[in-house]
Design a protein that fits this description.
about 160 residues, about 0% strand, elongated
């Protein structure tokens, strides 16, 4: 998978996450209007917000990892030599990849369980397993983004 293809995938995820935020805002606004004008709240809005918050957070991860834009504090950047700093950043990428792999491994069982038992959201009857699958997808895409950064760093390009 080339870097450009990963960047396109990450951008598509970010756009889908932005759409999820828009759906969340419109659903919440519709609920408020419905409650104020008709005296009836919109059924399932809380679950819609839960689903779209999950989607927006998870779909934002791949691009954040690929662009190396996670929140961090650069306390040592001014004090350490560039070569050592790059080594620490590479170590951080490797540890991030290990953590994402561990998270990905641990999402499998909830996907299988939710699918097997037919878990659904209460009001919307939305199946739960696709939400777990979305989480798994985001972790795997983030892992690939870290891998791309690691390969660039090993190739001599700076990270971060």
């Amino acid at each position: 998978m080339t870097y450009a293809l990963l960047a396109g995938l990450a951008r598509a995820c970010t756009i889908a996450g932005a759409i999820a935020v828009a759906v969340m805002m419109l659903g919440t606004d519709w609920d408020i209007l419905s409650r104020q004008l008709a005296g009836r709240p919109l059924s399932g809005v809380v679950e819609l917000v839960e689903i779209t918050v999950l989607a927006s957070a998870m779909l934002g991860l791949p691009e954040a990892f690929l662009r190396d834009e996670q929140i961090r504090i650069d306390l040592l950047d001014a004090v350490l030599p560039d070569r050592l700093l790059q080594g620490i950043k590479v170590l951080g990428l490797v540890l991030s990849m290990l953590f994402l792999a561990l998270l990905s491994q641990n999402v499998w069982q909830p996907i299988l369980d939710a699918r097997m038992f037919g878990d659904v959201k209460y009001d919307l009857s939305f199946p739960v397993w696709p939400l777990y699958a979305l989480i798994l997808f985001a972790f795997v895409a983030s892992f690939l983004g870290c891998l791309a950064l690691l390969l660039r760093a090993i190739g001599g390009k700076s990270v971060g």
